[in-house]
Every structure is written in structure tokens, then in C-alpha cells.
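A reminder from the course coordinator: this example appears on the midterm review sheet, so study it carefully.

Given structure:
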């Protein structure tokens, strides 16, 4: 009965009444050779949070802010698609779709499956969100895409073919090759490119290109790229949302305002305009906009009429289409396409409007996202090692929250404050459940009692506010006869030596390793800035005042095996059996003009007069040794000896780098808009034209020395405090900054930077990473695709940074790594600057409708946001910096995971494995390979991703083929089956099909990149070439 009614309903609705009769709209047109084909692509761009929260957008609440309801979009689109079998629609954001999908009846789900099978509902992108491309880490981009792709695969057995990044504010090289070609996409489509770039491309007909984002992979990871001529909305006059002002097609001659001929002429005119800037006889019209199709029939009814009457006119051909249909048509023309390399950053939509402020906006949220990203990676490893729980806590809620947070208005820092609070709340809930998951997993895997895995209780606790010294388990008085048990888990694939730093109240403690040996420790007094942060922000975050601040930081060195843990015991030094192992840091009283600090091979020199950094000195060998010698010989003998030494040093890389470096804090005054009404805001960075203000030229300085670490404390102003730490056995300086509340009582918004100035001739060149992966060459005031007209010399030279930035000259490299997404540049030769915090007083008129003025409130006290974080500096000989950047970058992204409890040392060692690794003993991954993902999936398969960390030619030693013995990674587990897949696991690697494109000027003599070969099931050895990421599904 229902199906018969549906059939009759479809037939009736294929006709319209005109003058008492029925006209069937002919909407079944396909591609017509010899005509201009206008591909109409119906879509709705649905932000996963922006002006409203994700759930408010889904259910349609809080409409006083914005009338938007994604639930209505999906409901009405399905009904409208059923009314006409020629209609098509594309949808991107799976975080919304999954909410809707699981609320539907089986009948509706079956109907939608048929629509998908018929190609009438097509998923584009298919990630949890449409992720940002500037402030996202490549692992997060992969994770959130995988989350959506696996849902599509499970529900529909489909794999998206098109990237649909229509709204992010600039586009990264990693998006092109990794989140495009390596996913199996044929194309990527977007709207936002620089206004100067767009003008040139429209003139040259180069909006559509073949994009090669990777120098390493070249044409093997290229992708067809479609930059829209204007925006992701339709041409003017062709938007048909129910509240739109466009003129509908009125085709009833018995009603006033009959306009079929006029509307067809308008359509043809607009099509010809676009055809004049596009190659081939195919153009795409994006028929939708933000949260459109809430009443889908208002759109589809007009599109039916346009297709019918335009094709009846015959000058052009209109058809319902999708990105995959469009790209297939483009490919069939056999056209040669222009080549695009590099990326599409930075982005400006008009003069003086560079969208480079959002690289830094909301730095606390950016840090939280990055911190939890590494935490999520480690948690999934432990969840796999312990066995995924079907009933207890798990990591999904954190994966969901992180997926949402990658949205281009989330981690970008460009949402309203209440929406940002919602992102943070979701992350906190996910982190809490994941913490419980980790604690149970550690209890299970470390226990010698197999029954421990069945319990729902764990003795462990963790400290999410450790950076501001709040860690109750370490602050508590250690019970008599017990120890503070510290378990350190290492998510990296190689053995790791690092430092643990925890707050304590006692300086009479002894630290022992897992074998009971006493190890050296160091105490440092807590500074007042940290104490004040702790008091204010624990109350703000936890709703309660903390106990008295701990007196000391306790620091000790740990060694942890790959994908494994080690245990350390801290107890009171009392009685004859124990003696204190700690060293109390002493304050240095400078006697000379310069103060040299650093217990290892890296030294830094500070002026005792101004308190400012003066130089960095690194003396080491490739093995981390320092070589010195004294020679008193005749000149001829000395020449012979030195020649032999020089030959030896060429083989054994000993070197010294002595580089004058200054470091200071400055702030750009933010523009209030001026004559063109374009202020600095959440999206846009626009200084007010004045040179940046130096915060302080003379800085109070305190030097703390100890055997493990030297610290330099600098108070640049009442609202900027810095601690520089130089550790034994580390080749870098760790700089901890505390910035805020930024004062704005002078009526000027401020954008705070740290600037390092090295005595280097860098010829305008510097390098920044792409989403934590490749490093791209940047040239100040230059774009390789067009002749840049410089109107913002600072903002127009800012680039996104997720891993680091470095400069080189003919002798040395100066590198800086970061702990979160941020913006940076080299505004003058030898300079590197990072923007660390922003507080602004004006909205930049890009839709968010709020100034970026973050505050934190405790009861009735509100103050501007204070941000604490780290960056890391290193100097190396030219060509030697890559090893430090890649290895240290992994350690920053994946810090040691610490868990705490109290127990007697003897009891713990008798009942727990104190040191263990998931791998076979004495095996570790090569230093150029990282474990990107190790996760047990819902279906019981194990997802393993391995990534080569180096680009081709980046390092002489490590830019080589790497090999991983899979079976040795999983001690005690037998790999029974292995299947290699694409990046998001929705298709087997062997089944991936790629479109081959002709490129202008190519003669086919490109050198093939080095890639790993197929995995032999008998040896299970995985090879990885430079920059290669390989994804496997394993069965044990």
C-alpha cells in the first residue's frame, strides 16, 4: 500500500499545472558534446559550530543568532530527491549526518541507501567536519577523516571521490597530496584563494589546475583542483532559499510576472561569464550556501525549471551534477592542465585583509586541541594493548570531540565565544573518559594478575593541569612506608630519554628506578607567577580553590622503552637506609658582563646588564659527544695533524655552532579599521601601521643552576614572564612563556610576538611546515604564482606553523619548534617571530560578530586570558637541523604520559611489571619512522599507520628507505592477516584507481619517488620511502 502510494506520488509530482494542464519538466539531461555544460551541484555548507554550537545547529535552536537547522536540511532533501529521480545533492559533514542517520527508521535508512547507490546523494569530503587547513595537525586531519569515511563505508559501502574544502581560509600542501590523492580522491574543490591570485587565474584560465603539493611524491600524488571563480554560492540571482531575494522562474502565463525568457537569458549570460574564465566546455555552479535547503523544495523546484527551460532554449546545456560527475567530464576532454605546486597561503579576500590572524587566535584552545591530540594517540595504543572494552570507558568521545574541533571555525579560533566554550567542554568530557580508559589499561597491562583486566577500578590518577603545578597525587604527603609510584608511558616507536617534572612539597625525597637504583633528582622552587596562575585557573576550571601551592618542582631523568612504560618510585628519605637523591637548585649571582648557562652541549649567553639573550653555542658530535684537544707541536707537524683531524671530522660529524641571537617580546598594535573600515579581528591580522612596540629593553634576570637543568627566569613586564630551560643531554632550549592578561585599557588591541634575531644572512628565505609534515620554502614579499602587490608587509608574510619554522645561511640553521598551531614569519633577514597571543577590541566583519577578547572569570572577578606554553630553539650546522626538528617534533607532539598512585615499592614490584614494551626486547622502530595510529577498531581489526618522517633530500642519513618488522612490533601476538588500505581505510590499496591527467609542458621524464614495496606475508617487513604513510588493517 505504501509503495503504491509512493509510486503515484512521484508520477503526480513530476508535473506542474500551467493553464489547466500538466507540463512534465525534462530534467534528465546529461553531458552534451559540443555545448557549454553547466553542472548544477546542489549543496548545503553546514558549519560544525560557528555562530551556534554543533547541537544548536543540528536541532535548530538559538535561532535568534542564526536561523539554521541541519536536521531540517537532511529531512527535506531526502523528500525532495524522492520527488524527481534526476535530482542530486552532495553532503560533507558526517558529524551532522551521523546524528541524523541514527535517528531514522529502517525504512528511511533503506531509502537513503538507495539514493546513495544511485549517485543522487553523494558524500563529498566525508570527514567528521570540513577541517581547517592552517591550524590542524596532519594526524588530526587523518583521524577526523577516517572517522567519517568508516561511517560511510559501514552504512553505504561507498568511498568519497571528491575533496570539498569549500570554506577553509587558504589551503595546505598536505591537504592536496595526503588528504586528497592518498585518500583516493580524484579532485578537490574550494572557494577561498587570495584575491590577487584569483584575478590572475581568471585572466589566464588557471582556476583549475593539477596540484602537486609534495616535492617528494611529485606527480604520483597530484590531484585535479577546482578553485571557484567567486565563492561557493550560486551566481548572483540564482539562490533560492525560502528567504532569498532571487527572482524565481515564473512560468505560468496566466499569472503576473511571467519571466521564463528573462530567467533563461540571465542563466546563459552568467554561464558565458564563467565559461570565459574556465577551460573546456564544462563549468560548475555551486547551488547552495550556508545552511541552505532547510526547505529543499524551494531550491529543487526552481532548478527543475531552469534545467527544463535552459535546455529547451538550447544555447547551453544544464544538468544536475556532482563533483565526481563534473571531474569525470573534465577528464574526458583530454585537456592539458596548468601545474600548481606549493600551497594557497596566505589568503586575503581584499586589500589590507589578510586572514593570518586566525593562525594564532584562541591560543589556549589551540594548545588544548594539540595536547589532546597526542593524548588520544597514546590512549588508543594503550586501549589496544589492554584490549578494547565493550562496556567500560573508551576513547570514542575524545575522538568525536577532536573530530569536531578540527572544523575550520573551531581550532581556527573563529567561532563565537559560547561556541568555543562548547568545543572545550566536549574536549574536556572526552579527555575525562579517556583518562579513565588509560588508567584501566595501564592497570591491566602492568599487572601480573591477569584478573586485573576484568576490574573496573584503577589505582591510577593523572594530572591534566600539571603545567600550572596542580597535581594532587604528587602534592600529597607520601604515606609512611609507601612510595609515590610514577608510571611513564612512551607512545613513540623508539627508546626515549626525557625529563619528568612534578610538583612536590618535600625536598627530602629519594627517587628510584624500576630496579630500585637511586637516581639523581633536582629541586626548583615554584615561582610566584606559577603560584598565581594555579590559584586563579584551578578555581576557574574546577570550581574550587586548590590547597596551598607546592613548594618545589622535582625533576629527574627517565628512560622509557618504545611503546612501553617504566616505573619510578619517590619516597621520603628517612632513616639510615635512605639518603636524599635530590639536588636543590642554587641561584647564580652573575659576576661578569655575560652569563653562560647550560649543563650540556648547548649553551646560552645572557647579558647581566640588560638581562637579554646574546648568543647560542652548540658543540657536539653526531653521537652527542663533545671533543676537545690541545696541540703543542711544530707548525709542520700541526698542519699534518690538523689535516688528519679535518679528514676524521668529515667522517665523524663533530662541529661547533656559535651564533649571536637576541630574543625579545613585542606587540603589534591592532588596527581599528581606519579609512577602509578593516580592523584586525579573529580572522584578520592587520597592524595599525606603527612598528611593533618592544615590551622591555631591560629585563630582570634570575639564573638557577643544577646538574639536570639550568633555568633563566625573565620578567619582561607585569604580564609577560619567561623561563628558559637548558637540560643535560638536550640540544635545544625550552622556552616557557606566560602571557596575559594583555592590557587594553589604552584602547589598543595587541598582538603579542616573540622575536628571535640571529646574525644570519638569509636572503628573505625561511621555511615553515605544512600541517606538521613537509617544510615549505617561503620568500618574503613573494608569490611564485603571481606578481605580488605588497600592501601588508607583516600580515602578508605570515604563515601557519604547526611543527616549526627555521632559517638558514651558508653556515648554520636556526630552528624554532612550537607546541600548538600558531602564526609566524621572518619579517627581516635573520629574524624569526611567532605570534603567541592576541587580544582585540573590534570585530573584523567576517561574520563572527564579536571582537576576539577572551576573558576568564572566577566568581565576580574577570580578567583577560593568560596563556602559558612552550617553544623550542636550536642551532645547528647547515644541513644538520632536520634530525633535531623531526625527532624533537615527535617528542613535543607525543610527550610521556604520566600516571600516579601510592604503594609500597616492594608490593608494587611484586604485583606489577615495572618496565615493559609492546615490542620484542631490543627492537625499536628506525628513527625516521613514527607510529601515527595503533588502534583496535569496532570490528576487532587493528588499525596501524606508520609514517616516514623525512622528505626526500632532507637529511643524508634519514631521507632513505626505512624498514619495519611488523611481527617484532607485537610481542606475544601473532599477525594472522594483513591488508594494506588507503589512508582512511575505506578501500584496499590495490583497488585504488587514479585518473591520469595531462599537464602543460610535461615530457614524462620525472624521476619516480622512492616508495616501499608490497608487504611479503612471510616476512611482514614494511618499507617506507621518504614522507610515505602506509595504513594497514591487521588481524591477530
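Designed residues:
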Amino acid at each position: 500500500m505504501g509503495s503504491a502510494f509512493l509510486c503515484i506520488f512521484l508520477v503526480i509530482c513530476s508535473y506542474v499545472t500551467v493553464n489547466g494542464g500538466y507540463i512534465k519538466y525534462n530534467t534528465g539531461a546529461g553531458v552534451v558534446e559540443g555545448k557549454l555544460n553547466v553542472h548544477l551541484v546542489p549543496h548545503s555548507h553546514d558549519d560544525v559550530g560557528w555562530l551556534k554550537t554543533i547541537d544548536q545547529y543540528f536541532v535548530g535552536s538559538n535561532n535568534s543568532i542564526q536561523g539554521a537547522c541541519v536536521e531540517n536540511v537532511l529531512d527535506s532533501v531526502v523528500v525532495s530527491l524522492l520527488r524527481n529521480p534526476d535530482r542530486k545533492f552532495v553532503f560533507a559533514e558526517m558529524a551532522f549526518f551521523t546524528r541524523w542517520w541514527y535517528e531514522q527508521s529502517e525504512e528511511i535508512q533503506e531509502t537513503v541507501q538507495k539514493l546513495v547507490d544511485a549517485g543522487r546523494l553523494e558524500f563529498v569530503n566525508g570527514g567528521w567536519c570540513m577541517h581547517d587547513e592552517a591550524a590542524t595537525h596532519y594526524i588530526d586531519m587523518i583521524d577526523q577523516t577516517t572517522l567519517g569515511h568508516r561511517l560511510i563505508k559501514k552504512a553505504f559501502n561507498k568511498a568519497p571521490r571528491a575533496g570539498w574544502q569549500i570554506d577553509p581560509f587558504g589551503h595546505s600542501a598536505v591537504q592536496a597530496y595526503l588528504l586528497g590523492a592518498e585518500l583516493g580522491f580524484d579532485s578537490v574543490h574550494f572557494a577561498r584563494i587570495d584575491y590577487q591570485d584569483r584575478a590572475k587565474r581568471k585572466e589566464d584560465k588557471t582556476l583549475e589546475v593539477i596540484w602537486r603539493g609534495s616535492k617528494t611524491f611529485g606527480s604520483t600524488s597530484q590531484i585535479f583542483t577546482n578553485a571557484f571563480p567567486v565563492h561557493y554560492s550560486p551566481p548572483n540571482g540564482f539562490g533560492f532559499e525560502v528567504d532569498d531575494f532571487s527572482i524565481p522562474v515564473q512560468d505560468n502565463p496566466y499569472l503576473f510576472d511571467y519571466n521564463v525568457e528573462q530567467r533563461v537569458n540571465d542563466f546563459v549570460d552568467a554561464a558565458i561569464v564563467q565559461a570565459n574564465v574556465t577551460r573546456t566546455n564544462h563549468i560548475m555552479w555551486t547551488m547552495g550556501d550556508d545552511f541552505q535547503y532547510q526547505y529543499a523544495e524551494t531550491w529543487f523546484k526552481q532548478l527543475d525549471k531552469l534545467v527544463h527551460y535552459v535546455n529547451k532554449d538550447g544555447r547551453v546545456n544544464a544538468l544536475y551534477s556532482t563533483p565526481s560527475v563534473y571531474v569525470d567530464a573534465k577528464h574526458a576532454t583530454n585537456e592539458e592542465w596548468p601545474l600548481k605546486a606549493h600551497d594557497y597561503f596566505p589568503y586575503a579576500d581584499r586589500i589590507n585583509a589578510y586572514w593570518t590572524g586566525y593562525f594564532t587566535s584562541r591560543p589556549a584552545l589551540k594548545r588544548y586541541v594539540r595536547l589532546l591530540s597526542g593524548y588520544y594517540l597514546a590512549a588508543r595504543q594503550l586501549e589496544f594493548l589492554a584490549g578494547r572494552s565493550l562496556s567500560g570507558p573508551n576513547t570514542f568521545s575524545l575522538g568525536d570531540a577532536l573530530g569536531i574541533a578540527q572544523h575550520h571555525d573551531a581550532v581556527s579560533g573563529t567561532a563565537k565565544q559560547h561556541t568555543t566554550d562548547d568545543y572545550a567542554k566536549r574536549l574536556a568530557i572526552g579527555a575525562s573518559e579517556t583518562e579513565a580508559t588509560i588508567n584501566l589499561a595501564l592497570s591491566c597491562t602492568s599487572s601480573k594478575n591477569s584478573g586485573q583486566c576484568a576490574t573496573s577500578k584503577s589505582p591510577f590518577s593523572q594530572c591534566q593541569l600539571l603545567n600550572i603545578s596542580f597535581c594532587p597525587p604528587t602534592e600529597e604527603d607520601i604515606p609512611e612506608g609507601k612510595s609515590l609510584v610514577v608510571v611513564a608511558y612512551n607512545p613513540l616507536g623508539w627508546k626515549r630519554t626525557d625529563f619528568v617534572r612534578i610538583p612536590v612539597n618535600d625536598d627530602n625525597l629519594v627517587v628510584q628506578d624500576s630496579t630500585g637504583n637511586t637516581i639523581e633528582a633536582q629541586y626548583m622552587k615554584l615561582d610566584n607567577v606559577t603560584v598565581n596562575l594555579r590559584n586563579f585557573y584551578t578555581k576557574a576550571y574546577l570550581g574550587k580553590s586548590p590547597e596551598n601551592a607546592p613548594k618545589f618542582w622535582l625533576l629527574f631523568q627517565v628512560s622509557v622503552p618504545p611503546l612501553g612504560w617504566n616505573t619510578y618510585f619517590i619516597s621520603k628519605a628517612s632513616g639510615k637506609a635512605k639518603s636524599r637523591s635530590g639536588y636543590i637548585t642554587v641561584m647564580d649571582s652573575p659576576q661578569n658582563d655575560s652569563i653562560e648557562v647550560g649543563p650540556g652541549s648547548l649553551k646560552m649567553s645572557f647579558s647581566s646588564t640588560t638581562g637579554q639573550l646574546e648568543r647560542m653555542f652548540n658543540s657536539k658530535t653526531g653521537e652527542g659527544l663533545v671533543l676537545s684537544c690541545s696541540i703543542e707541536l711544530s707548525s709542520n707537524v700541526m698542519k699534518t695533524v690538523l689535516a688528519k683531524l679535518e679528514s676524521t671530522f668529515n667522517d665523524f660529524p663533530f662541529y661547533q655552532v656559535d651564533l649571536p641571537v637576541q630574543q625579545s617580546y613585542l606587540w603589534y598594535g591592532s588596527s581599528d579599521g581606519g579609512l577602509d573600515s578593516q580592523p584586525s579581528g579573529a580572522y584578520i591580522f592587520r597592524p595599525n601601521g606603527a612598528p611593533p612596540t618592544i615590551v622591555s629593553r631591560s629585563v630582570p634576570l634570575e639564573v638557577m643552576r643544577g646538574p639536570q637543568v639550568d633555568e633563566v627566569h625573565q620578567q619582561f613586564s607585569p604580564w609577560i614572564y619567561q623561563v628558559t630551560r637548558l637540560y643535560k643531554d638536550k640540544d635545544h632550549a625550552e622556552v616557557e612563556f606566560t602571557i596575559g592578561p594583555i592590557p587594553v585599557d589604552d584602547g589598543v588591541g595587541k598582538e603579542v610576538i616573540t622575536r628571535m634575531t640571529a646574525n644570519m644572512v638569509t636572503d628573505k628565505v625561511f621555511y615553515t611546515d605544512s600541517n606538521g609534515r613537509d617544510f615549505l620554502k617561503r620568500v618574503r614579499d613573494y608569490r611564485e604564482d603571481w606578481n605580488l602587490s605588497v600592501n601588508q608587509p607583516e600580515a602578508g608574510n605570515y604563515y601557519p606553523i604547526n611543527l616549526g619554522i627555521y632559517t638558514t645561511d651558508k653556515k648554520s640553521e636556526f630552528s624554532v619548534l612550537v607546541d600548538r598551531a600558531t602564526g609566524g614569519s621572518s619579517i627581516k633577514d635573520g629574524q624569526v617571530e611567532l605570534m603567541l597571543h592576541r587580544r582585540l577590541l573590534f570585530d573584523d566583519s567576517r561574520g563572527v560578530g564579536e571582537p576576539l577578547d577572551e576573558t576568564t572569570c572566577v566568581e565576580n572577578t574577570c580578567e583577560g586570558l593568560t596563556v602559558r606554553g612552550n617553544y623550542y630553539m636550536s642551532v645547528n650546522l647547515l644541513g644538520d637541523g632536520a634530525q633535531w626538528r623531526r625527532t624533537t617534533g615527535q617528542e613535543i607532539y607525543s610527550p610521556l604520559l604520566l600516571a600516579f598512585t601510592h604503594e609500597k615499592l616492594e608490593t608494587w614490584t611484586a604485583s606489577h611489571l615495572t618496565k615493559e614494551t609492546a615490542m620484542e626486547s631490543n627492537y625499536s622502530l628506525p628513527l625516521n619512522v613514527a607510529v601515527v595510529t595503533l588502534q583496535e577498531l569496532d570490528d576487532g581489526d587493528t588499525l596501524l599507520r606508520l609514517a616516514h618522517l623525512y622528505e626526500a633530500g632532507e637529511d643524508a642519513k634519514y631521507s632513505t628507505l626505512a624498514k619495519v618488522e611488523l611481527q617484532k612490533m607485537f610481542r606475544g601476538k601473532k599477525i594472522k592477516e594483513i591488508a594494506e588500505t588507503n589512508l582512511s581505510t575505506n578501500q584496499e590499496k590495490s583497488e585504488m584507481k587514479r585518473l591520469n591527467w595531462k599537464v602543460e609542458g610535461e615530457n614524462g621524464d620525472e624521476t619516480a619517488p622512492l616508495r616501499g614495496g608490497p608487504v611479503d606475508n612471510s616476512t611482514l617487513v614494511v618499507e617506507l620511502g621518504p614522507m610515505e604513510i602506509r595504513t594497514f588493517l591487521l588481524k591477530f
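Residues 1-18, 622-653 have pLDDT under 50 and may be disordered. The first helix runs from residue 2 to 13.
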